[in-house]
Design a protein that fits this description.
Blueprint (H helix, E strand, L loop, with lengths): L1 E2 L14 E6 L5 H15 L2 E6 L8 E2 L4 E3 H12 L6 E6 L3 E5 L2 E6 L1 E3 L5 E5 L10 H19 L29 H7 L5
Length: 192
């Protein structure tokens, strides 16, 4: 299903941004729908929702009992191809880990590469604290916006409450409100 909303890039229509939202493994359809909606509402980008494959065994860490998020991104690049015109944001319910600050496979809600084409987010850790499905999906939308911001070229931001705050700065996902004015200007530069 396609939702046609042009992302404000100042590029010709033929080069407009398209995001494929990929529901992988046994992720709930409501989570995928929530992410698609937040990207549409917040960034006005074209979104295609598709069903995704199960991760290959090669990205599983038996030592840490979680999936290597960077390994999943590499796998996505191999499957889709580095020169893909679409961005892909894979959504899973599996536990993800990233190597961060000397800590091997630290638990994470998501990962993407600034200016890259592939990102991954997970609702696994968002189910802590007995949150309702609606609450989990709300916070998953925040994670999706953060990782999408990276894919669209944004770096971490130091403005308190900005969705692009670094994992080192933010105390808790509940403090994030949205893109600050500085980040909005970078995202929504001149539309002609």
């Amino acid at each position: 299903m396609w939702f046609l909303f042009p992302f404000c890039t100042g590029r010709p229509v033929s080069q407009q941004v398209c995001f494929q939202i990929i529901g992988a493994d046994s992720i709930a359809a409501s989570a995928v729908d929530a992410v698609a909606k937040v990207l549409l509402d917040s960034l006005e980008i074209r979104v295609q929702v598709i069903k995704g494959p199960v991760f290959p065994d090669s990205v599983w860490s038996s030592e840490r009992k979680r999936y290597r998020a960077a390994g999943v991104l590499n796998w996505m690049a191999q499957v889709k191809g580095e020169n893909s015109t679409e961005y892909q944001l894979l959504i899973t319910d599996k536990d993800l880990g990233v190597d961060y600050g000397g800590e091997k496979l630290r638990g994470a809600n998501g990962l993407s590469v600034q200016g890259g084409k592939f990102g991954i987010i997970s609702d696994y850790r968002l189910h802590q604290f007995g949150r309702s499905t609606d609450s989990v999906n709300y916070y998953l939308g925040k994670v999706a916006l953060h990782e999408t911001g990276h894919l669209l070229g944004l770096t971490h931001c130091k403005v308190p409450g900005c969705i692009m705050e670094s994992v080192e700065i933010k105390q808790h996902i509940t403090t994030l409100r949205g893109f600050c004015n500085h980040c909005k200007k970078k995202l929504f530069h001149k539309c002609e």
